[in-house]
Design brief:
This protein is an alpha/beta fold and about 300 residues long. The protein has 14 helices and six strands.
């Protein structure tokens, strides 16, 4: 092929996605505040998304709108409860949603100050997930909670406080109960170690989690006009729960639009991208993705929010 006929154009006429004036990082120096560090990051890609999520959270709370944080179990067993509690105590997080694993890790931390067993070492011996206290005490608390009309999250949070478990100050569920904000737990039967125990009762599990689904749907119904929904480290279960809750809220006449969603995870998966970031924000809302390790990104997110408020 003869390239002599190829046409060109002046670079001055081209539209560019990045320029020095608006998008470059600023110099980093010793002693910077978190806000200064975040402002110094390039106005591009992940750092741009992180800063926009921080701004959305700050704006939501100034407007009195909800900021909901939904988390998978890995977030809890990374030891991030003190960071999350700081956001709860500052009235930033207004509702928390967990999967079953998250509630189990949170309970074990409150009970013994440790969690996350070595699955490989215990599985073939038939001991994986069989710690007596974990299954027995959680299932007993749920049975009592359901009888009192409580959901899964509140039942466990109250039990941790009432029994004065040794490390209750590190419990996220207990912190939510103390603060009076919703903490919901959404289980899929057979996915959690507490379902393996002889004390497990499918009717109790279903009733506790269904109560929490109704509470969660109520929370989601209030996201419109400025709220923020954050999905952190749940690749399947909580994105599906969120989509169904949003559908019910819309069906019942709550027009949930003009809100912000974000998915924080170590890698981006199909369901969070589809059910949290894209589909719910197809109107006039905005969805963001922030990729990175929870133990790095969540403290940075929290510090950025607390600095700005």
């Amino acid at each position: 092929m003869d390239f002599s006929g190829v046409t060109t154009y002046p670079i001055s006429t081209r539209k560019n996605k990045m320029n020095v004036q608006d998008d470059f990082a600023q110099p980093v120096r010793a002693g910077m505040t978190v806000s200064e560090l975040l402002a110094a990051m390039p106005n591009q890609l992940g750092s741009q998304s992180l800063n926009r999520v921080i701004d959305a959270v700050v704006a939501a709370r100034k407007k009195g709108k909800p900021v909901v944080m939904a988390m998978g179990g890995h977030v809890i067993k990374c030891g991030l409860q003190p960071v999350l509690k700081a956001l709860i105590e500052a009235d930033v997080i207004t509702a928390v949603a967990l999967n079953g694993a998250g509630s189990i890790h949170d309970f074990e931390i409150a009970l013994i100050g440790a969690t996350s067993e070595d699955v490989g070492a215990a599985l073939h011996a038939g001991n994986f997930g069989m710690a007596e206290e974990t299954g027995g005490e959680i299932n007993a608390a749920l049975k009592s909670g359901v009888a009192a009309g409580l959901g899964h999250g509140e039942a466990l949070g109250r039990m941790i406080l009432e029994r004065k478990l040794p490390f209750r100050e590190q419990s996220l569920m207990a912190a939510c109960v103390e603060k009076g904000i919703p903490v919901t737990v959404h289980v899929a039967i057979g996915t959690d170690i507490t379902h393996q125990h002889p004390s497990a009762d499918g009717a109790v599990l279903g009733a506790a989690s269904f109560t929490d689904f109704r509470i969660f749907t109520s929370v989601v119904s209030e996201l419109g006009d400025g709220g923020v929904y954050l999905n952190i480290g749940s690749a399947v279960l909580l994105p599906e729960v969120f989509l169904k809750a949003l559908s019910i809220a819309q069906n019942l006449g709550y027009h949930v639009d003009h809100f912000t969603t974000a998915n924080f995870d170590m890698q981006q998966h199909y369901r969070p991208l589809t059910n949290v970031v894209k589909r719910p924000t197809s109107g006039k809302s905005r969805g963001y993705t922030v990729t990175g390790h929870h133990e790095i990104m969540i403290p940075l997110l929290a510090a950025g929010i607390l600095d700005k408020i």
